[in-house]
Structure formats: C-alpha cells, structure tokens
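User: Predict the structure for this protein chain, please.
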Amino acid sequence: MGLSINQTVPDFTAETTEGTITFHEWIGDSWAVLFSHPKDFTPVCTTELGYMAQIKPEFDARGVKVIGLSVDPLDRHEEWAKDIEETQGTAPNYPIISDADFAVSKAYGMLESDVEGDPLVRTPADNQTVRNVFVIGPDKKLKLLLVYPMTTGRNFDEVLRVIDSLQLTATHRVATPAQWEQGDKVIIAGTVSNDEAREIWPDGWEEPRPYIRIVPQPA
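Assistant: Here is the predicted structure, written as structure tokens:
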C-alpha cells in the first residue's frame, strides 16, 4: 500500500553516501524532501540530482533537509556522483540512500513487497515506480507526494513553491489558490468562521463568493 497525506512515514535505518542514518532521527525538527530514483547512471535522474545540488541552498533557507535514494549499491552512488558533477556542473551535496535490498522502496509503497534479488540485475524499467518525491514535516507526517514517469524530469522549483505554501499554511489559517507564488494573496481557510476571521483580519477581506475570502499573505 502507498502512503497517504498526513500519514506518519515509515522510519528506517540505511546506508547513505554520508554514512548510516536513522530516518526520523535524521529529520529531527526539520522539514525533509526524499526523492527516489530507479537506478544509478540513468539520464533523467542524472539531471535531477545535479539540479537539486544547485538549488539546495533554497531548501536550506527554508529549514528543509534533502536526501536522495536509488535502488543500487553504495559504491555505484559514489561513481555516479562523479558523472553528475562532470555533466551537470555540481556534485550531490546531500546524502543518497543505498536501497539495494529494496527495503525503503517497499516500505514507502514504491515497489511490491515480493521484489527481491540482485539490484544490479534489475533494469530501470523494473524499478520505474521508484520515481517519487516525498515532502515530510517535522512531525514526520507526509505533506506532499508526487509520482513521476521515467521520461519526465522533476520540477524542483514547484517543490519549493509547495513547501512555501505548506510552511505558510501550517502557521496561519489560510490556504493558497491556484498558481500562488510567495507574496500573492491567499484565501482564508474554510475552517475559519466569519466571526473568527474578523478578529484575525479586522480590515476585512475580498469576497467574490461567500466561500471565497481573499486576504493579503500574512507576514
């Protein structure tokens, strides 16, 4: 079974390119992004890992830890990192999990529970469902799940946009509309009554319909 939004994500211990981690402990009080890959030395994933390394300071600024995962042994990750640096201009500057026993992929619903064998024998197509982005809150609950096909590179700028929304709405009683960007107007959450809203927004709000209450983004 796959994971659902607001479900506590499975904890695990794994080997990474930066040593052994226990996932919940590694997250600590931070937000986290776990993004997975079907195999090392695949073209689309190579571009993704390189781009993530380039924009990692944006995640750092938001208090978000980044970790990759690939269904290959650790020594392959280290060799792949050299290719990523040479072709994309930046080597991974975050840990990459070695999921050679498929344990994490199974726990997170990316591979069937009966998958087994030598990961080096499996092709990228065999692992094509290991192409997910998980955004996890400090409470260790899943906040966002994106699943991509092998032929489409992931848009990590969109992941940052969603994190901005998640962090804003976790603090303030608002929701963000379609195409929202940092600084745009927001919508008063449907769980807030008009009486409560008047206390929070004494200057009022725009109301094109009674169920659409628009206010400036809270500071």
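The longest helix spans residues 43-61.
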